[in-house]
Each structure stands twice: as structure tokens, then as C-alpha cells.
Amino acid sequence: MNVLMVASECARLAKTGGLADVVGALPAALAPLGIKCRTVLPAYASLQPLVGKGRQVASFGDLPGGPGRLVQVTAHGIDLLLLDAPQLFDRPGQPYTSPKGNDWPDNHLRFGALAQAAARIGLDGLGGWKPDVVHAHDWQAALVPVYLKQADRPAPKSVLTIHNIAFQGRFGGQVLGELGLRADWFHPDGLEYFGDLGFLKGGLVFADRVTTVSPTYAREILTPKFGMGLEGVLQARGAALSGILNGIDTNAWNPAADPALARGFDARSPGRKAQSRPAVAARLGLDPDHCGPLFCVISRLTHQKGLDALADTIPQLVAGGGQLAVLGTGEPELEAAFVDAAAEYPGKVGTLIGYDEGFAHLMQGGSDAIVIPSRFEPCGLTQLYGLRYGTLPVVARTGGLADTVIDANAAATATGCATGFVFDDVSPAGIAAVLDRVFNAYGNRKQWQAMQRAAMRQPVGWQQSAQAYARLYQALAG
Ligand code: ADP
Ligand code: GLC
Questions:
Q1: pLDDT at 93
Q2: Which atom of ligand 2 is nearest to the CA of 374?
């Protein structure tokens, strides 16, 4: 079984969030099941050195936004097909934004080109290789199923995975022609989304199957509260929609052999986490002799993540004897709120505004708990890293957070299966209430360590979910 993955991010190559982690880990998880993946990814400026090491395997004269070529190269075990179109991708800045932080004005062309190049591989193959299934991720790849369907000739089946329905790729309808899309499909049952062209909308209509990254989020997005305007389209897809939980790369995130940690540990030795704490404290200016729980946040600082409510709960967190370590970038007001809190509570709150993969590992290693008060969370990966590192997740009951953390209620605690703290009310009062529960549990060392062991033993790898994807591909390809 051959699968062509299409995405705008891939771990260790281009990353803004969890999408990259999933796209980077899935091929290796599927390989033992007899599924061979190739991954189409834009050749961003940072990937140009890799392009130089690769081999051209296809060229296209007329993609949206001009010509492009595919360069095959293997990196980190992933069989990559880099879409090299310098006029679209070889620029400074982030995958979607300019150095000033604005969306690139030609994002429709950039990701239209990505989708069209991938669809052509699907339709024509590549040097005799043909995918049985094309698996597109998020809005940036969502036109792949549309291009496959409009070619109107034998094509591989398509799967579209929604990692976050908040990002939909919405552009003025006038770009339809530039993208080579069929004008007669521009209606509410096709590509049109409230008068505009919707990349994700089109993909949801035309993909053979739609998945999202947790069973709970698959149900939530059928409702107006979570569907962000696409709930009707999703309801219409009925049984074509399902939720498959993300796993994590348990080699990249292995507390027993993580080079970022002061000392490795496993479920038998969570006490050794304490040896990584001084390095976290030193980097963030936290009091190294503090003896209460160290909470951490490793996140995009956005409304989705509910961190405004956490910022308002810092007085209670500190008064209860906690410390807070924050690593993130995002909305300026949220960045400012955590920078100000660090100034107001020296030694108790430490904030690093920035993106630092190695420090994220060290924080998971040295912290006691990770707080994720998301308003919605399709899956969430940092709670899974927290489980694996015995850093107990404190999470809102939504999406994948609800599916992966077992709340320390009386029954779960008594039976030894609790792995974290789950709460319903994303507000300062709701967070203060759950923090009280965390402080109580932390005060009972036996209970805390039992929870750490249960957390670290919870399977969070890809095994089960890779099988679910394999079954899905097999059902589609026949
Ligand atoms: P989302 O994709 O919505 O941002 P996830 O929890 O699925 O949320 O994935 C976030 C990923 O990005 C995790 O791998 C997390 O460790 C990482 N991450 C987020 N912010 C930072 C940061 N400032 N520095 C390093 N890693 C970060
Ligand atoms: C999105 C979601 C996050 C999920 C990630 C990977 O960025 O916000 O919840 O874990 O994609 O699927």
C-alpha cells in the first residue's frame, strides 16, 4: 500500500505546531504495517540546503503561481518530495507569514500549487510509483481532493485530516481562475464558503474520507460551538467523518534517553525529574530552592489555548505555593501578560517568549505539571508529552485532552489509574478550583508518585492509531 502525504509542515523541517509532529511521525509508524509513505512538502527557504542534496523527479510548468519542480530527498527517515518553487516558498519568515507576522498575500497560490503538484502525482504517478491513497492535512493541502475529483479520470482515493478547523484557508472568490478550479463548482454545496472560496470547505466536500485527530473533536465539530461554520458540511458527510487520536514519536520524546535532560528517568525513577529542574529555573530566573509544584506552559499563546484565563489565575497559583514556567509565542497581549507576571512575581513566574524545541523537552523533564486550559483542542500533543514525562497534565475537558487524560477523581485515584486533572470551566475561577485539587494531590507524595507512574505507563505512541489509519486506507483502496 502506497500513501502520498501532503502537508505544509513536518517535524525537524518546518514546524509551527502539532501538525508537524504528526506528519513527521506517521510514516515511520505506518511502515511496519506495510504502508509506504512519501511526503510532499513545500521547499521553504530553510529547506533549500536539502533541495541541493536531492534529485529532481518531476517538473511542472503551470502550477498556480508559476512553475515548480519536485525534488526527492530522504531526511530523518522520511521520503520527501520537496516542491521547489522559489517564487512561492524561498522567502524569509514562517511557513504562512512574513517576518512582520502578516499572512503572505499569495498564500492561496502557494498552497494551491502544493495541492496541485500532489494531485498530479496522484493522477500520473512518479516514475512508475503510484499512490493508492492521497492523505492531505489541513487547509493548506485541502484542495488535493478537489483537484483529484475535477480531473475526471481514474484517481487514487483521498483522505483529508482536520488538525484544527479554526484555520480554513478562506480567500476571495476571484482567485478561483488563478487556481484552475471549476467555476461551476463555486456554490454552497461545493467550493463556496459564504461568498468566498474555502480551501478546507472544498476539501471536506470532495474528500473520500475526512478524519480529525480525536474522537471527541470529531463529535464536537458537528456542533455550532466547535464547527466554526463548517458543522453543516461535516454533518452532511455523515459516516465519512471519523476521529483518530494522535500519537507521539516515543523515540524523540523518551525521558530515559532525552539529551535535553540533566538526567534520564522512567516510570520507576520519576524522582530523577528533580535533577532537570535547576536548569529550567536558571533559564527562566525562577527560585531554585522553591519546594512547591512547578507548573509549565509550552504553547502557542492564543485565545484557543485559554491562557488568558490562566494569566488571570497567577495570583492564586503563586499564593498556593506554585511556580510557573512559560515558553511560547503568539498574541502580543498574551505575551505581555506572561512577561508582566514574571516581573510581578520574581522567582515564582518565569517567561520565555520564543520557540525552543530543546527547552520544551527540558521543561517537560523538569516540571511537575503542565497546564493546558484550552477552549478547544483537536488533539493536543503537549499533554501526551507530559504523560510520558510524568509531568501531570492539568487540562480542560475538550477534544483530545478529554480523550487522553484520566482525571484524578475519587474512583480513578482509588484504582490507581488517574493520570492528571480534568476541569470543565475555562475561567479564572475554574482554573483556581482545579489548581486547589493539584496542590492537594501534590501534598500527598504517595498519591502524586502513583499518578506519575500511571501517566508514564499510559500508551501514548502511534501503535493503535497507525492501525486505525491503515484500516482506513485499506477500506478505501479495496
Ligand atoms: P498546536 O498544534 O495547536 O499548537 P499541539 O499541542 O498539538 O498544539 O502541538 C504543539 C507542538 O508545538 C508541541 O510539539 C509543542 O511542544 C510545540 N511548541 C509549542 N510552542 C512551543 C515553543 N514556544 N517552543 C517549543 N515548542 C513549542
Ligand atoms: C492542531 C491542533 C492540535 C493538534 C495538532 C496535531 O494544531 O490545534 O490540537 O494536536 O493540530 O494534530
A1: 85
A2: 9
Domain spans of the chain, in order of start: 2-247+463-477, 270-457
Tell whether ligand 2 has an atom less than 6 A from the beta carbon of residue 107: no
CB distance 163 to ligand 2 below 6 Å: yes
**Minimum-distance ligand 2 atom for the alpha carbon of 166:** 8
What is the mean predicted confidence (pLDDT) over 144-148? 98
Give 303's DSSP letter: G
Nearest CA to ligand 2 atom 11: 163
Say if CB 400 and CB 377 are below 8 A apart. Answer: yes
Question: 2-247+463-477 and 270-457: same fold?
Answer: yes
Give the distance (Å) from ligand 1 centre to CA of residue 66: 33
CATH no. of 2-247+463-477: 3.40.50.2000
Is 387 a pocket residue for ligand 1 (Cβ < 6 Å)?
no
The one-letter amino acid code at 278 reads: P
For atom 12 of ligand 1, the residue with the nearest CA is: 17
The answer on pLDDT for 426 being more than 90 is yes
| C-beta of 25 in contact with ligand 1 (< 6 A) | no
Read off the pLDDT of each residue in 353-377 and give the average, rounded to a whole number.
Answer: 98
Question: Does 127 have pLDDT greater than 90?
Answer: yes
d(CA 35, CA 27): 8
With pLDDT > 70 as the criterion, what percentage of the chain qualifies?
A: 100
Q: How far is 35 from 21, CA to CA, in rounded Å?
A: 19
Query: Which residue among 379, 401, 404, 405 is best mutated to probe the pocket of ligand 2, counting the most ligand atoms within 8 A of its Cβ?
Result: 379
Tens of pLDDT, residue by residue over 382-419, are: 999 999 999 999 999 999 999 999 999 999 999 999 99
pTM: 0.97
Q: Which ligand minimizes its atom distance to the CA of 383?
A: 1
CATH topology of domain 270-457: Rossmann fold (3.40.50)
Alpha carbon nearest to ligand 2 atom 5, residue = 18
Q: What is the DSSP string of 334-381?
A: HHHHHHHHHHHSTBTEEEEES--HHHHHHHHHH-SEEEE--S--SS-S
Q: Which of 71, 43, 68, 46 is nearest to 56 (CA)?
A: 71
CB atoms within 10 A of CB 52: 9
| Ligand with the closest atom to the CA of 300 | 1
Q: What percent of the chain has pLDDT over 90?
A: 99
What is the 8-class DSSP label of residue 262? S
Q: Could you tell me the distance, in angstroms and rounded to a whole number, from the CA of residue 298 to the centre of ligand 1?
A: 6
Q: For all residues of the chain together, what is the average pLDDT?
A: 97
Nearest ligand 2 atom to the CA of 217 is 9
298 pLDDT above the threshold of 90 = yes
